[in-house]
């Protein structure tokens, strides 16, 4: 006898993964860890379940979902334009934090793609995500498991904070490894047409270029070619400001209220503000960034000392600029 869902948090075991798979197959939603952020999963071929994902998140229906597959072979169930470039990229980076946009398979509902003829697909490497996909036996849509517009969830507790009443089962696999969303690359044009990075992530443009040649990085955050590249994504509910190390002292002197300050070294942060010392490598920084932004929501604002300006830090800069576009929640 299956109880109706409220919010159920479960440690992933053979048994709970099998139960989660059964729930997904019945058209319910399950949040699960991937190596990037937690995903809010639903069976891709069940339109009612996919519609519930939009409703629960409060996500605009035009914002397409990423389809998660267990393997390269399964990508053929989702994408119709799976050409040699897609194959080479998937071969090199899957399973992993790279999402490929290609022409959609006719069986993929336009609800999934926000009305587009293209679809985004990725094979996650997280062991729980892999076990769940295999147990379900078909691809899952899995946008980040947070309320639309809020900072993505990187722990099961973040998911529970955003959806305290469910209805949802959450597989609690601990904090995610990468901590920021996947790189999204658009390969939906014909071979030879320009390749665009729609969203930066842990896999860099230069990594992708080694496999498929030159790529263009779309850095427009206000009206991007891809819906998730618009501003007002990934934002905490308090104002966030990115400042240079030189400006910090002056800005803090003039700040009203109690700020949390993400710094690279302790010092120069007077009371009543709170300093959080952040890692100096982009991977370690990305891993904890969203947790810090969510903690920062308990303060009057968040001030972030600007990270170095180079390609390795590109995805972090991108997320910080989006987070600094203030939003009403
Ligand atoms: P998330 O909210 O992290 O699941 O990311 C979903 C994002 O993937 C969207 O907001 C888009 O930026 C991108 N995406 C998904 N599907 C497509 C598509 N068909 N074309 C372009 N971008 C897409
Ligand atoms: Mg998201």
Question: Any overview of this molecule?
Answer:
The protein has helices at residues 14-25, 47-57, 72-75, 84-93, 127-136, 156-162, 205-212, 248-254, 282-296, 314-323; strands spanning 7-10, 30-33, 38-43, 66-68, 98-103, 118-122, 140-141, 168-171, 183-186, 195-199, 215-217, 240-243, 259-263, 274-277, 301-305. The mean pLDDT is 93. The two termini are 38 Å apart. The protein folds into two domains: 7-217, DHBP synthase; 240-323, no CATH class. The protein is globular and about 60 Å long. Helix content is 29%, strand content 19%. It is an alpha/beta fold. The protein has an eleven-stranded mixed beta sheet with strand order 1-8-2-3-7-4-6-5-9-10-11, sandwiched between helices. Strands 12-15-13-14 form a four-stranded parallel beta sheet, sandwiched between helices.
Briefly characterize the structure.
The chain is of the alpha/beta class. It contains 10 helices and 15 strands.
Question: Layout of SSEs?
Answer:
Blueprint: E1 7-10, H1 14-25, E2 30-33, E3 38-43, H2 47-57, E4 66-68, H3 72-75, H4 84-93, E5 98-103, E6 118-122, H5 127-136, E7 140-141, H6 156-162, E8 168-171, E9 183-186, E10 195-199, H7 205-212, E11 215-217, E12 240-243, H8 248-254, E13 259-263, E14 274-277, H9 282-296, E15 301-305, H10 314-323
Parallel strand pairs: 1-8, 2-8, 4-6, 5-9, 10-11, 12-15, 13-14, 13-15
Antiparallel strand pairs: 2-3, 3-7, 4-7, 5-6, 9-10
The structure holds adenosine monophosphate and magnesium ion (MG).
């Amino acid at each position: 006898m299956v109880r109706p869902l409220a919010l159920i948090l479960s440690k992933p075991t053979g048994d709970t993964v099998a139960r989660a798979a059964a729930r997904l197959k019945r058209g319910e939603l399950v949040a699960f860890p991937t190596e990037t952020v937690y995903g809010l999963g639903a069976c891709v071929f069940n339109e009612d379940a996919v519609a519930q994902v939009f409703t629960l998140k409060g996500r605009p229906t035009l914002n397409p979902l990423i389809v998660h597959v267990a393997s390269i072979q399964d990508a053929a169930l989702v994408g119709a334009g799976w050409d040699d470039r897609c194959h080479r990229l998937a071969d090199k980076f899957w399973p992993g934090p790279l999402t490929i946009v290609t022409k959609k398979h006719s069986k993929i509902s336009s609800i999934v793609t926000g009305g587009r003829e293209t679809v985004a697909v990725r094979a996650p490497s997280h062991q729980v995500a892999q076990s769940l996909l295999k147990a379900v036996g078909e691809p899952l849509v899995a946008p980040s498991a947070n309320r639309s517009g809020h900072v993505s969830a990187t722990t099961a507790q973040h998911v529970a904070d955003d959806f305290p009443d469910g209805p949802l089962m959450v597989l609690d696999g601990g904090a995610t490894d990468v901590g920021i969303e996947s790189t999204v690359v658009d390969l939906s044009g014909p071979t030879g047409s320009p390749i665009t990075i729609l969203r930066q992530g842990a896999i860099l443009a230069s990594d992708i270029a080694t496999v498929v040649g030159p790529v263009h990085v779309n850095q427009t955050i206000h009206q991007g070619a891809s819906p998730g590249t618009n501003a007002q994504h990934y934002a905490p509910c308090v104002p966030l400001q990115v400042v240079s190390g030189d400006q910090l002292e002056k800005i803090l002197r003039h700040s009203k209220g109690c700020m949390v300050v993400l710094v690279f070294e302790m010092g120069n942060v007077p009371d009543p503000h709170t300093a959080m010392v952040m890692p100096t490598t982009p991977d370690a920084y990305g891993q904890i960034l969203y947790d810090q932004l969510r903690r920062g929501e308990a303060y009057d604002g968040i001030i972030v000392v600007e990270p170095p300006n180079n390609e390795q830090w590109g995805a972090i800069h991108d997320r910080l600029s989006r987070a600094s576009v203030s939003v009403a929640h």
